[in-house]
Amino acid sequence: MPGDPRIRASDADRDRVATLLREHHAAGRLDADEVQERIDKALTARTLGDLDALTADLPHIDLHRLPHESMARGGQLQPRPRSPLESADARAAVAGAAAIAAIIAAYVVAGVVFGIWWIPWWLVVVIPVILIRRMRQRP
After folding, report:
1. CA dihedral 60, 41, 16, 47 (to 10 degrees)
2. DSSP string, 49-88
3. I need a surface site. Which of 30, 42, 51, 119 has the fewest CB within 10 A?
4. For 49-75, what is each residue's pLDDT tens digit?
5. Dihedral of the CA atoms 129, 133, 135, 139 (nearest 10)?
């Protein structure tokens, strides 16, 4: 933790060090008694120097990359599995489904409120599908 070691520690600083100590315990660097002792000291620490002393013999862990990336075996970062919704085709399919749902909802509302039921229901689905396919074919 960079900074002047004489500066008073905040609750957020204490909590961050306690979290780091728990992660080192999960990685097997600290045993249960030692991690509890260090966490107790972290929660009562007054200065940043007191907190630095608790983690001085431990490697740095980036809490934003936990749990699997920074704690990977062999020190190698593991690639994050891709979500099915991360591809452009999947996003387009979700957008198309949302558009069709919105059109169907508008059709039902118009039918209930205004009594407009003369539009064939299949046009409500077929026309947006055709438009979406044409939009996807454009470069």
Report:
1. -90
2. HHHHHHHTTS----GGGTTTTTT-GGGPPPPPPPPGGGSH
3. 119
4. 999 999 989 888 766 554 544 444 444
5. 170
Q: With left for phi above 0 and alpha for psi between -120 and 50, is residue 120 left, alpha or beta?
A: beta
Handedness of CA 60, 34, 22, 13 (dihedral sign): negative
Distance CA 65, CA 46 (A): 28
Could you tell me which of 43, 34, 57, 59 has the C-alpha nearest to residue 10?
43
Q: What are phi and psi of 8, to 5 degrees?
A: -65, 140
- Cα separation, 50 vs 14, in Å, equals 10
Alpha helices in the chain (DSSP H): 11-26, 32-44, 48-55, 88-114, 121-137
Distance CA(26)–CA(35), nearest Å, equals 10
Give the span between the Cα atoms of 22 and 34, in whole angstroms: 11
